[in-house]
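Q: What would this chain look like folded?
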Amino acid sequence: MKFTLFIARRVIRQENRSFSGLIIIIARLAIALSLAVMIVATAMVSGFRETISDKIYGFWGHVNISRQSLRSSFDDLPMPVDSAFLNWAGQKPDIAAVQVYARKAGMLKTRTDLEGVIVKGVSSDFYSDSFRKYMVGGELPAFDGDQPAGDMVLSRSIAQRMQLEVGDSAVLYFIDQDESGLFNQRYRKLRIAGIYNTGLEEFDKMFVLADIRHIRRLNDWGPQEVGGYEIFANRTDLILPVYEEVAREADPFWEVQSVYELIPGIFDWLNLQRINERIIIILMLVVALINMVTSLLILILERTTMIGTLKALGANNRSVRSIFLVQAAYIIVWGMVIGDAIGLSLCYLQQAFGIIRLPEESYYVSVAPVSIHYGSIILLNIATLAVSLLFLLIPSALVSRLHPVKTLRFS
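A: My prediction, written as structure tokens:
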């Protein structure tokens, strides 16, 4: 082994003095650019998944409980507040919060505009920590007063379409059908206390936040009736375990859904991004491997005289192959160091300055998000080195086909 390393070091020192020096530079750049692209792709896909998932979690929670129903309607059916269930959930270390809600379809009217909306009523237990970061104007009203709060929160898209600002007032109209079949109209005039923007247009264009007590009165519910529960886990990796626990504990007449079941379309789209990420990684690995295989073949062919001399002096094929594999590992490691520096620098620049901008209506974010996971980067480096060296065993086998007599005769 000492002999192999000694020869490999001598060869590496002389690499810039021959034609192979240019080939080695190209090989390093190929490794560096391939790894940099893999790092950026992984960071951006992770950023997309985490940012968009967080928006959905903030709006819907991690686990949703509602009353079982065969009807398709935006209006929730009433269910009683279950104190025993709330006490059970409060004692679970994996559950961060439980909030009640109720939804009701209505129309938002100003002097000049009319728009259909869904009012989501929330109570004093509203988990505002997950929603507050999406506020772009005003503030969240307090829902813990003795009387129903006279405020509501609109999305930015609704406010812009209806030309409303914080402090303005608008009227919410609701139409219900009574037992005799007659339609009754009720309304609530509320002040706009805040404006939010999640970037999820299918939600932003419909939902208005208000006090749940308005919906209770409009639906003639009791003070202890709600439309459902939204449960927040302490960490996203606990969502499915919490869902399974809640499903076992829940009343048999309740419908328990994880957020992945509640809104499958967006999560399916996010999972497709993982496939794109894998395709990019595979393509970049193929590019790096082709360059390294070509470079190693050139290095071997350029050193045929040295190979013949070493074999004539008694070196076996394994030792000679090891010399070139050590040289290849040196090229790969240097390329990875450069690639890590380029990839991480690009990620940090995007985090700091938001260089890449996106249409929010198509991608749910206005700036391409980046999430750097150093564990993933280490795995990418290990995989790149291991796969490259494994594939380089094939061209290095050319050493065994070079006979010392022939190589020395034509040198």
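Residues 2-54+267-409 form one domain.
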